[in-house]
């Protein structure tokens, strides 16, 4: 029975080493690490990713699949729920590092199964909703920056160049939504705690700053 760690690295800030270090700090050890790089969890299904396809081929009954959170499996509700249920049907246990969730095919009582399936659906829906909220916030920030530029205010002064990237802001929002603490988020995404607090307290301002600098 193998323990396999899967990571989806969609941006330069979401490095494999960060995800793996977080898993090992939580006490996990692995027989193999499988990672897809530069792949969107919104538009590319698990089976369509190079390493995702390999994961379907290699997992066997009794194996354990470890992921940082369900959003590493994807950010599309249908794809994530289909993937988890397929793995469970094969006798694979899925464990998340964040929140310490465990999904398997063990429950036989229909009420327990219903609770498990509802939780899977909720987490998958949350992953997709966070991706959509991040995109909407980015659009709002860009629109605000353009409006200022057209009025002449932004042309006169764009403010200090932000110390964070758009991808880091998206990661911060996602981790805040999962209930992770500011200090742990700072270590995960490589930003100071003060910066995390600024993004948390003024998300629109963070998007506007990025848009003003075309970051």
What does this structure look like?
This protein has 215 residues and is of the alpha/beta class. The chain has two domains: 104 residues, Rossmann fold (3-Layer(aba) Sandwich); 84 residues, no CATH class. Helices cover 54% and strands 11% of the residues. Strands 2-1-3-4-5 form a five-stranded mixed sheet, sandwiched between helices. Helix 4 packs antiparallel against helix 6. The termini are far apart. The mean pLDDT is 83. Belongs to the site-specific recombinase resolvase family.
Q: Which consecutive residue ranges, at least 5 long each, have pLDDT under 50?
A: none
Structural class: alpha/beta
Strand residue content: 5-15%
> Quick one: CATH superfamily of the largest domain?
Resolvase, N-terminal catalytic domain
Give me the number of helical elements. Answer: 9
The tally of structural domains comes to 2
| Average residue-wise pLDDT | 83
N-C termini distance: 45 Å
The percentage helix is 40-55%
Q: Give helix and strand order, one letter per element, not per position.
A: EHEHEHEEHHHHHH
CATH fold field value of the largest domain = Rossmann fold
- CATH architecture descriptor name of the largest domain: 3-Layer(aba) Sandwich
* C-alpha Rg (nearest Å): 19 Å
Could you describe the largest sheet, including whether it forms a barrel? 5 strands, mixed
Coarse morphology: elongated
InterPro entries: Homeodomain-like_sf, Recombinase_CS, Resolv_N, Resolvase-like_N_sf, Resolvase_HTH_dom, SSR_resolvase
Pfam families: HTH_7, Resolvase
Organism: Jiella pelagia
Active site: 10
């Amino acid at each position: 029975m193998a323990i396999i760690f899967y990571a989806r690295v969609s941006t330069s800030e979401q490095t494999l080493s960060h995800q793996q270090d977080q898993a090992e700090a939580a006490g996990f050890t692995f027989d193999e690490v499988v990672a897809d790089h530069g792949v969107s969890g919104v538009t590319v299904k698990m089976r369509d990713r190079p390493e995702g396809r390999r994961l379907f081929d290699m997992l066997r009954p009794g194996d354990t699949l470890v992921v940082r959170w369900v959003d590493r499996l994807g950010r599309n509700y249908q794809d994530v729920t289909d993937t988890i249920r397929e793995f469970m049907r094969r006798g694979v246990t899925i464990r998340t590092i964040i929140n310490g969730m465990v999904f398997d095919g063990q429950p036989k009582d229909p009420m327990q199964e219903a609770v498990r399936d509802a939780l899977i659906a909720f987490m998958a829906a949350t992953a997709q909703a966070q991706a959509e909220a991040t995109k909407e916030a980015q659009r709002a920030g860009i629109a605000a920056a353009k409006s200022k530029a057209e009025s002449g205010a932004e042309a006169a002064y764009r403010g200090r160049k932000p110390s964070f990237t758009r991808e880091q802001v998206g990661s911060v929002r996602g981790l805040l939504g999962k209930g992770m603490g500011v200090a742990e988020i700072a270590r995960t995404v490589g930003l100071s705690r003060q910066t995390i607090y600024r993004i948390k307290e003024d998300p629109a301002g963070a998007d506007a700053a990025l848009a003003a600098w075309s970051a």
